[in-house]
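Colleagues,

Please find the record for the two-part complex below.
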Amino acid sequence: MKEYFQLRIKMLNRHFKDFGVEPILAYPIVILIFTGITTFLYGKLQEYAIFIYCFIAISILSKLGEKKRNDFLKSCFIKRNYFKVRLIENSLLVFPFILYILYQKYFFYAVILYVIALVLSFIIYNATANFTIPTPFSKKPFEFSVGFRNTFYIYPFIYWLTYKSIEVNNFNLGAFSLIALFFMLLNYYSKIEDSYYVWIYKKSSKDFIVNKIKIGITYGIILSLPICIALSVFFNTYILIIFSFQLGGLFYLAQAIVAKYSIFPEEVNIPIRILIVMSMFFPPFILITLPYFYSKSIEKLNAVLND
Amino acid sequence: MIKIENLSKKYGKIQVLNTINIELERGKVYGIVGENGSGKTTLFRCIAGMEKYNGKIETIQNMKDYLGFLETESYFFSKITGREYIQLLCNAREKELVNIEEKNIFDLPLDKYATAYSTGMKKKLALTAILLQGNSVFILDEPFNGVDIQSNIIITELIHKLKELGKLVIISSHIFSTLADTCNEIHLLENGSFVKKVFKEDFSKLEEEMKLRTVTNKIDKLNLV
């Protein structure tokens, strides 16, 4: 069992290295980012940040219950040790979230979250089950149809946050739900596809990328519109802010698409991520990064589409 | 339709293809045989324009837009259904997808995730998709791999039909009988070069020769008792 956890740490360190960060730096950076986001979220959303943290923690924990992974663990360990591994893994993962909730003195939620983490150690689900999750995006595969199926359980939570923001008259919470939605959509473009799925297109590089942006923006508008309309109706004094968040979200979505292909077929690397983050902290910067990624992506796509 | 002149390809210092020369015509089926690692897949990827190479490949303009490429192992996204996979490939070629149920000749469970399909079903799905794209050139890399006997018969008949329709088909297969059934000519690829070109009347001779060369001597080395 000890070897298993040592191996997990090795694998995690390799992930950091592949990402371009030495593990010795990666751990403090992760802690800093977690603390920073936590402090910011709690400052803006108060007790609702606890719900968001519980939700994130449960989402991460549920991934550990995937059947294939558990079949592998069962084949490696005797029954008692298998359950020990699952309990330790879940406890370790939920620890930072519980620490934060305890720090905010929400003892009840901390206990509930820990109990859920323990219960989830005994639950296994089959990701390739016979049941196919329906998606409204199947006519234009693949980013939104696949992304929607991977994150379908987050949608009710995001829309519930919008509803809650109206109920408790907390605009920040509503704005957070819109931002969270766009962050989730950006994630749909984080994985590079096999070059075959670009090669098949009977399009020029420009048409290919414009088509991808069109699909992304159309679906982005469909999914974000309910939040925008609800917030505009109930917080009409903030209508300009809502509109700029919506517009900004769509711009960042377009940027995520062009940034993905700017280094194709390689994975998005650290310098690109830095540019994206910079454009988020300083929005006018997107006027430079977006055209830059666009021209780079045309260059890269020309090689695949033989343009 | 496709004229390949002095095609060579290197991965680092390893020469995978070495001065390949071949002319491929519309309405014919060409078989490419060779051991694993002989360069078949690399040759296909070069023809498809998915790899950079030295030499010359002359084709019709934008042939890639009319080329159906069945890869040895197609990649499928984790949560995409069979139907969506076909839709994606048809969208890519701006081909409207109509009456898919009727065209599902392999009776695939189109509303299930493609990753949950068996090896043979994945092959059949990928083949269905490139057929529905309405291509005029087909590269089929191991189309019979993992496919059941009934589908084997259907695929063989499909290749005959494509030939009849004047399409160009290039196939690789380890099952010699499937090539003998469908091909006009077979080219033997060894260490990245074509070493033999055989027409239909000599296919049986080639099979015997390949058996002798690749099987007999190697099995003897095991000293089985």
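The radius of gyration of chain A is 21 Å.

Comments are welcome before we finalize the supplementary table.
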